[in-house]
Amino acid sequence: MSSSPLECSRCSKIVEGRAIQAVNKHYHLACFVCDYCQTQLGPPVPFYPRYGRFYCKNCEQSLFGEYCKACGQVISADGTPSLQALGSFWHQEHFVCTSCSAPLGDGFVNKRDQPYCRTCASGVSSH
Predict the structure, then answer these.
(1) Could you tell me if 95 and 83 are in contact, meaning their C-beta atoms sit under 8 angstroms apart?
(2) Rounded to two decimals, what is the model's pTM?
(3) What is the pLDDT of residue 62?
(4) What are phi and psi of 78, to 5 degrees?
(5) pLDDT, averaged in runs of 10, over the chain (127 residues)
(6) CA atoms within a 13 Å half-sphere pointing along the CA-CB vector of 73
(7) CA distance 56 to 87
(8) DSSP for the chain?
């Protein structure tokens, strides 16, 4: 019993020789690229599947990542401390009092959808 030839999931041509298998599909080495920037994927370049497509780390983060409200940069999944507050994502180091810039690790007060330390919040009106 012989197995049927593998078909590349990107170009639909028969895969001969080396191939990459990802998410139960097969690809020519040259066809396994980032769907956005066309960077070659596969060992040693990691890939990230999203909605049936594959992305390199940079494109996956820029297209699907969360952005810090304070600095506008992507919040990486590399272990950099981050948090979610006031309906937004923040690098932990950027989650500071709107008035005095004190770190808000011990809690905050929401005034006009902005984070304040307890001391500064007492001087800010709710309107």
Answers:
(1) yes
(2) 0.60
(3) 86
(4) -85, 10
(5) 78 91 92 95 89 91 88 78 91 94 90 92 73
(6) 10
(7) 28
(8) -PPPPPBBTTT-SBP-S-EEEETTEEEEGGG-B-TTT--B-BTTB--EEETTEEE-HHHHHHHH-EEBTTT--EE-SSS--EEEETTEEEEGGG-B-TTT--B-TT--EEETTEEE-HHHHTTS---
- Tokens, residue 68: 């810090």
Name residue, tokens 């009106």.
Answer: 125
| Tokens at 101, concatenated | 């810039």
Place of tokens 């690809």: 27
**Which position has the token pair 């950099």?**
80
Token digits of residue 125: 């009106």
